[in-house]
Design goal:
The complex is a heterodimer of chains A (233) and B (798).
Chain A (H helix, E strand, L loop, with lengths): L4 E5 L3 H13 L3 E5 L2 H10 L4 E5 L7 H11 L4 E5 L4 H9 L4 E4 L4 H18 L2 H4 L4 E4 L2 E4 L4 E4 L2 E3 L3 H12 L7 H9 L7 H15 L9 E4 L3 E4 L3
Parallel strand pairs in A: 1-2, 1-3, 3-4, 4-5
Antiparallel strand pairs in A: 6-7, 7-8, 8-9, 10-11
Helix pairs in contact in A: 2-3, 7-8, 7-9, 8-9
Chain B lengths: L1 H25 L1 H9 L2 H7 L8 H19 L9 E4 L2 E4 L9 H4 L3 H18 L3 H10 L1 H10 L13 H9 L4 E7 L2 E5 L2 H4 L21 E7 L7 E5 L2 E2 L31 E8 L5 E5 L4 E7 H35 L1 H16 L3 H32 L6 H34 L9 H13 L2 H32 L6 H46 L16 H55 L5 H31 L8 E4 H11 L1 H7 L2 E5 L6 E4 L1 H18 L5 E8 L3 E9 L29 H11 L3 E7 L2 E9 L4
Parallel strand pairs in B: 2-10, 12-14
Antiparallel strand pairs in B: 1-2, 3-4, 3-8, 5-6, 5-8, 6-7, 9-10, 11-13, 14-15, 15-17, 16-17
The chains are: A alpha/beta (233), B alpha+beta (798).
C-alpha cells in the first residue's frame, strides 16, 4: 500500500521540492516534473498513481496536460492554482481534475487530500459498483446504516452518540437544509431553546473528524441564515 | 419633328382645356336653365314656332278679352292693346312682362350694356301706363298726336279715346286678323273682304274664308261661333285641346272663358269673336305723312315672333357652346398627359413670380368675387332652382343677362383658383417671396434670441394682429352703422385694415403654431432624453433639426451625455484594471507564499530544532497565515468595490444568521473576556441576501468589536424589524479615542494609524462592500467612544 508513486508537477522547483519532501515523509514515492510535457512523458513511462499539477506552467499548461492525461489514464489528479475564484475551480474540475487546491495551501491538507484520493482510488476502487443497500456513499464518506458507523476514505470515524445521531440524520437527508431547531428536536428529542450554539458546537466537532480542512468544509456546511446541511457530492 | 408634334400636342390640349372650361363657365347659368327646365317646355322654348310659347297664349287671351269688351260694350277693351312710344305704335304691350325685350337684343353686348345703364329708365319707359303718361307730360308734340289719335291712359285722368279711333289703330296690325260680331251683326274687323259688311248681319260665318290668300294665317281662334260660349282653336288645320279636363287652374294653358269654373254672362253669349294670327308676322309701317309721318307698328305678334327667334338663337348658341366645351374638355382629357406638361410649363412660369402678387391675384380676386357678386349670384341661383315654376322665361332671361356678366367673372375666378392650385402644387418648397429677405432676416434675428425670449416674441407677434384685427373690425362696424348701413369709404378702409390684420394673424398664427407645436414635441423629446440619461442609457443621442428652438439645449445635453459616457467608460476601465492589477499582484504574491508556507511546515516537522528556533518558526507560520488572509481580503474587497463580486442571493432569516455567526464565533467571544449582549427577535426576519457574504460581514464586525473594545466593556448586538427594514446594529466602546473625521470603512483605515495591532485594516471595508453587494446599506456612527455599525436590509414578505 505504501510507496505509491505520486507525480508532482510545478514550474517552481522549490515548491515541487517542498511537496516532495512532505509526501516522502508520509511514505510516498515522488516523481518530479517542471512542465506539462515532462509530466506527460513521465505518465507514459512510470506507474504513477496520483498527480499533483500546477495550472500555470510553461510549454504545456496544467489544464491541457490534465486533458491529455485523462484521454489515456484514469488516475486521481489534484490541481494546484494561485487562482482561488470559484470559476477557476469549476473550470479545473470540468477539465478532468479530481480536486482543486488553491495556493498558498496548507501542506498538511494537501497531504491529507493525497492520502484520501489514493485510498479511494486503490483500496475502494469504483464506488458505485460496490454500493450496497445499507450503505450511503457521499464523496469520501460512507455511512453504514446497520453499523451506524461513518467511514471516511474507508476508515471508520470515531463519533460520539450525539454526533452519530446528527450524522445519521444528515447522511440520510443529504442536500437537505435542516434548521438548528429541527436538528435539536430530532437528535435530542426535546424542544429547542436557543439551539444554535449547541448544534454549532457538534457540527464543528464532526467537521474536525471528517473534513480535510475543517475551516473550509466540503461536506458539513452551514447555510447562513437558514440552517445546516450535508453537501451531496 | 417629334418634339414639334409634342409641343403642338401640349399647346393643343391646354388650349382645349382652357377654351372648354371658359365656355363651360361662361354659360354656366344658362346651362343650368337649359338643363333645369322640364323637357316639354324646353323643347317648346327651343323651337322656332312663336305660337307655341306662353307669351303668345297670353297675348291671344288678352286680345280675345279686349275684343269681347269691344263687342259687348264693356269697359275692358282698353287694356293697352295699342300704345305709343318714341314715334312707334306698340301692340299688346304694357299689360304683362317688362323684361321680354332683353332677348330681342341681338347680341350679348347689347344686353350687358342694357343691364348696366339703361335698365331702370327703359323698364319704366316700357311699363305701359307710366311711359305714355310720362311722354305725354314731357312733350307737347306727343300729347297733340295722342289727342289726334284719341288714345290715352285713363288712370291719369285723361280722356279715354273713343272706341272707333281705338279700333282704327287696332286694325292696322295686319298680323292679327279679327272679326267681332254682336247678335249676328258684324261690328269690327280688319279683314278686307269683310270690311264692306260692317254693320250688317253676317250670313256666312266661315271667317277663315275671308282671310287674305297672300298671307298665311295658320292660327285661328273662335269664340262662341257655335253659340256655346266656348273657345275653339285651330292651328295648322288641326283643332287644339283648349280646356283639358275642363277646369281652369294656374297650370291651364289658355286663359279664356268656357271652363266649368270660368263662364260668360248672357250678354257676352250674344257675341262672336274670330281672331287669326299670321304664321310669319311682319313689321307693318304706316306712311301717314299727312298726319305725322311714318309709323312703325312695333310689338304684337311681330315682336313675339322676333323674341322667339332670338330666344331660339340663344338656345342654339348655348347648346353649341356646351357641345364645344364638352368636346374640348374631352380632347383635353384624352391628352391629359400633355395637358399636365402644359400645367408644368405654366407652373414653371409662375415659379418665377413672387408669391405676394400671386396671392393677391389668386386669392384676392376670388375673395373680391365672393364679397361683391358671389353672394347675390348665389342667392339668385338658389331662387331659380328653388322656384323654377314661378319664373317665367322673361324673368329667367333677365337674370341670364346678368349672369352672362357674372359668368365672365366666374370664369376669371376659376382661372385664378386654377393657376393658384397649379402654382401651389408645382412650386412647393421653392417659393419666391418678395418679402423673403425680410422674413429671412426676421428668422435670423429670432434664432439669435434665447428660447424664452423667442417664445415671448411669438406671443407678441400673434397678439398684436389679434388686437389690431379686433379694433379694426369694431371700427368698421361702427363706421358702417354710423353711415346708415352703407359701405362708405372710411368703413371700407377699416374693413380693409381688418382684413389685413386677419391675414397677418392667420399667417403668423399658423407659422407660430407650427413652431410651437414643434417646440412642444422637442420639449417632450428632451425630457425623455433626460430620463434616458438618468436611467443610464448614455449611447442614444438626441437629434433635433437645425432650426429647432431647443437645438442648443439638445446639443448641450448630448455633450453632457458624451462626457458622462466617457467618464463612465474610463471609470469602468480603471476599475477593471485595478481589479486585474490586484488579481495579478495577489497571484504573484501567492506563489512565493506557497513556498514559505510549505517550508515553514517542513521546519515545524524538524524534531531537532532548539526551542527558541521552534518559536521563530511558529511566528513565521502565523504571519504567513495572516499574509494569506490579507491577500485574499484585498482581492475580494477590490472586486467588491468595482461591482465584480459574484453574489448568490437567496431568502434568509437575518436573525438566524446572526445566531449562527455568534455560535460559530463562540470560542473567540468567550476568550475575549468581553460581554456580548444580544437582542434578536425570535420570529424570522426574512431578507434577501447572499448568506455566505453576510456571514463574512458580521464575522468581521464582531471580530472588529472584539479587537477594538475597551477591555471589560460590553458589546451590544441588536436586530430590529419594523416590517419594512431589518436593522442590525453592533455597538461597542472603543479602547482607543475615536477620530470623528475618520471614515472607518475606507480601505486600510484603522482605529490607530500605527498598524501594529495585527488587523488587515480591511475588516470594515469588506463588511461595507459585501453589505452593499448584497443590496443592503452600511453605515458607521461614532459618538464619543461609542462605536456603532448599522447594517440595514429591506424585509422581504411572503
Amino acid at each position: 500500500m505504501m510507496n505509491e508513486c505520486v507525480l508532482v508537477v510545478d514550474d517552481d522547483r522549490e515548491i515541487v521540492k517542498a511537496i516532495a519532501l512532505l509526501l516522502e515523509k508520509e511514505g510516498y514515492q515522488v516523481l518530479k516534473a517542471y512542465d506539462g510535457m515532462e509530466a506527460l512523458e513521465l505518465v507514459a513511462e512510470q506507474p504513477i498513481r496520483l498527480i499533483i499539477m500546477d495550472v500555470m506552467m510553461p510549454k504545456l499548461d496544467g489544464l491541457s496536460a490534465v486533458m491529455k492525461i485523462r484521454e489515456r489514464k484514469n488516475l486521481p489528479i489534484i490541481v494546484l492554482s494561485a487562482k482561488s475564484e470559484d470559476t477557476d475551480k469549476i473550470l479545473g474540475l470540468s477539465m478532468g481534475a479530481d480536486d482543486y487546491v488553491s495556493k498558498p495551501f496548507n501542506p498538511q491538507e494537501l497531504a491529507a487530500r493525497v492520502k484520501s484520493h489514493l485510498r479511494r482510488y486503490t483500496s475502494l476502487g469504483d464506488i458505485n459498483a460496490q454500493q450496497q443497500a445499507d450503505e450511503i456513499h457521499n464523496g469520501r464518506l460512507c455511512y453504514r446504516i446497520e453499523e451506524r458507523t461513518l467511514y471516511a476514505d474507508g476508515e471508520p470515524v470515531k463519533l460520539t452518540a450525539t454526533e452519530t445521531k446528527i450524522v445519521d440524520l444528515l447522511m440520510r437527508n443529504r442536500g437537505r437544509i435542516f434548521p438548528a431547531e429541527e436538528i435539536y428536536q430530532r437528535v435530542w428529542e426535546e424542544d429547542a431553546f436557543a439551539p444554535e450554539n449547541t448544534v454549532m458546537v457538534h457540527i464543528r466537532r464532526i467537521r474536525e473528524k471528517i473534513e480535510l480542512n475543517p475551516k473550509e468544509p466540503e461536506y458539513l456546511k452551514v447555510v447562513w441564515g437558514i440552517g445546516y446541511k450535508m453537501e451531496k457530492i | 419633328m417629334d418634339t414639334k408634334w409634342r409641343k403642338f400636342r401640349i399647346i393643343l390640349s391646354f388650349t382645349a382645356f382652357f377654351v372648354g372650361m371658359t365656355l363651360l363657365l361662361n354659360n354656366f347659368i344658362s346651362m343650368i336653365n337649359l338643363i333645369g327646365s322640364s323637357w316639354d317646355s324646353l323643347s317648346a322654348r327651343m323651337g322656332t314656332d312663336y305660337q307655341e310659347q306662353e307669351d303668345f297664349r297670353w297675348y291671344m287671351s288678352n286680345r280675345l278679352e279686349e275684343l269681347l269688351g269691344v263687342a259687348t260694350g264693356g269697359k275692358g277693351w282698353n287694356s293697352y292693346g295699342v300704345t305709343y312710344s318714341n314715334g312707334d305704335i306698340y301692340y299688346g304691350n304694357g299689360y304683362y312682362n317688362d323684361g321680354w325685350w332683353w332677348e330681342t337684343s341681338t347680341d350679348v353686348q347689347e344686353a350687358e350694356q342694357a343691364v348696366g345703364e339703361e335698365i331702370s329708365e327703359d323698364i319704366a319707359a316700357y311699363a305701359g301706363e307710366a311711359s305714355s303718361s310720362d311722354i305725354t307730360y314731357s312733350d307737347g308734340y306727343w300729347r297733340e298726336r295722342q289727342e289726334e289719335s284719341g288714345i290715352y291712359g285713363d288712370e291719369y285722368g285723361y280722356r279715354k279715346p273713343d272706341l272707333d279711333s281705338y279700333m282704327k289703330e287696332y286694325a292696322r296690325d295686319k298680323n292679327l286678323r279679327y272679326a267681332v260680331l254682336y247678335k249676328g251683326k258684324l261690328l269690327y274687323t280688319n279683314m278686307e273682304q269683310l270690311e264692306t259688311q260692317v254693320g250688317e248681319e253676317l250670313k256666312n260665318t266661315d271667317f277663315q274664308s275671308y282671310l287674305p290668300q297672300d298671307e298665311e294665317y295658320n292660327f285661328c281662334l273662335w269664340f262662341n261661333d257655335k253659340g256655346d260660349g266656348k273657345v275653339r282653336i285651330n292651328k295648322d288645320g288641326q283643332d287644339l285641346d283648349v280646356y283639358g279636363d275642363g277646369v281652369y287652374t294656374e297650370d291651364s294653358l289658355w286663359f279664356v272663358p268656357g271652363y266649368t269654373n270660368f263662364n260668360v254672362d248672357e250678354t257676352t253669349k250674344e257675341a262672336v269673336v274670330f281672331i287669326a294670327a299670321a304664321k310669319k308676322p311682319k313689321l307693318y309701317i304706316a306712311g301717314n305723312y299727312s298726319q305725322y309721318g311714318s309709323n312703325q307698328n312695333w310689338g304684337g305678334l311681330y315682336s313675339l315672333q322676333q323674341r322667339q327667334q332670338y330666344r331660339y338663337d340663344q338656345y342654339q348658341a348655348c347648346k353649341w357652346k356646351l357641345l364645344t366645351a364638352l368636346l374640348l374638355l374631352t380632347l383635353a382629357f384624352l391628352f391629359r398627359k400633355d395637358k399636365r406638361l402644359g400645367d408644368q410649363a405654366i407652373g414653371r412660369f409662375l415659379g418665377h413670380i413672387w408669391m405676394e402678387p400671386k396671392l393677391l391675384l389668386f386669392v384676392g380676386i376670388p375673395i373680391l368675387f365672393l364679397l361683391t357678386g358671389g353672394r347675390e349670384m348665389l342667392r339668385e341661383l338658389i331662387w331659380i332652382l328653388e322656384d323654377e315654376a314661378y319664373l317665367g322665361i322673361e324673368e329667367l332671361s333677365y337674370y341670364a343677362g346678368m349672369f352672362i356678366m357674372r359668368g365672365t367673372f366666374l370664369t376669371a375666378v376659376f382661372w385664378m383658383i386654377y393657376l393658384g392650385a397649379v402654382d401651389l402644387r408645382l412650386n412647393k418648397g421653392h417659393r419666391k417671396f418678395l418679402f423673403g429677405p425680410l422674413v429671412l432676416s426676421l428668422r435670423t434675428r429670432e434664432l439669435k434670441l434665447p428660447v424664452q425670449k423667442r417664445m415671448v416674441e411669438r406671443y407678441c407677434q400673434v397678439l398684436v394682429p389679434a388686437v389690431l384685427s379686433t379694433v379694426f373690425t369694431i371700427a368698421a362696424a361702427v363706421s358702417y352703422e354710423n353711415s346708415y348701413r352703407e359701405w362708405n369709404s372710411s368703413a371700407l378702409v377699416m374693413l380693409l385694415f381688418a382684413i389685413f390684420s386677419w391675414l397677418w394673424l392667420l399667417i403668423f398664427g399658423t407659422w407660430h403654431l407650427r413652431k410651437n407645436k414643434q417646440l412642444a414635441k422637442d420639449l417632450g423629446a428632451l425630457s425623455n432624453q433626460i430620463l434616458e440619461i438618468r436611467e443610464g442609457n448614455l449611447t442614444k443621442r438626441l437629434e433635433l433639426p437645425e432650426d429647432a428652438d431647443l437645438k442648443a439645449a439638445a446639443e448641450n445635453l448630448n455633450e453632457i451625455q458624451q462626457g458622462m459616457e466617457t467618464a463612465l467608460r474610463e471609470q469602468t476601465k480603471s476599475e477593471r484594471m485595478k481589479v486585474e492589477l490586484v488579481a495579478n499582484v495577489s497571484h504573484d504574491i501567492k506563489t512565493p507564499l506557497t513556498s514559505i508556507v510549505s517550508y515553514v511546515e517542513l521546519l515545524k516537522q524538524e524534531e531537532e530544532l532548539p526551542e527558541h528556533v521552534k518559536e521563530y518558526v511558529q511566528i513565521l507560520g502565523e504571519k504567513s497565515e495572516r499574509l494569506k488572509t490579507m491577500i485574499q481580503d484585498v482581492f475580494e474587497v477590490s472586486k467588491a468595490a468595482s461591482n465584480q463580486l459574484p453574489v448568490n442571493m437567496e431568502r434568509l432569516d437575518l436573525g438566524k444568521l446572526l445566531r449562527q455567526t455568534l455560535a460559530d464565533m463562540n470560542t473567540q467571544i468567550e476568550e475575549s473576556g468581553l460581554g456580548l449582549k444580544t437582542s434578536i427577535p425570535e420570529k424570522p426576519v426574512m431578507i434577501f441576501a447572499d448568506g455566505q457574504r453576510l456571514y463574512r460581514v458580521f464575522q468581521n464586525l464582531i471580530q472588529n468589536a472584539l479587537k477594538y473594545s475597551l477591555s471589560g466593556s460590553r458589546i451590544f448586538l441588536t436586530l430590529t424589524d419594523d416590517g419594512k427594514a431589518a436593522v442590525a446594529s453592533i455597538k461597542n466602546i472603543s479602547d482607543m479615542e475615536l477620530d470623528d473625521a475618520k471614515d472607518f470603512t475606507e480601505r486600510f483605515v484603522r482605529g490607530d494609524t500605527s498598524r501594529t495591532d495585527g488587523g488587515s485594516g480591511l475588516g470594515l471595508s469588506i463588511a461595507k462592500s459585501f453589505t452593499e453587494a448584497c443590496g443592503g446599506s452600511f453605515r458607521v456612527e461614532t459618538n464619543a467612544d461609542l462605536f456603532t455599525v448599522i447594517v440595514e436590509f429591506a424585509v422581504v414578505h411572503q
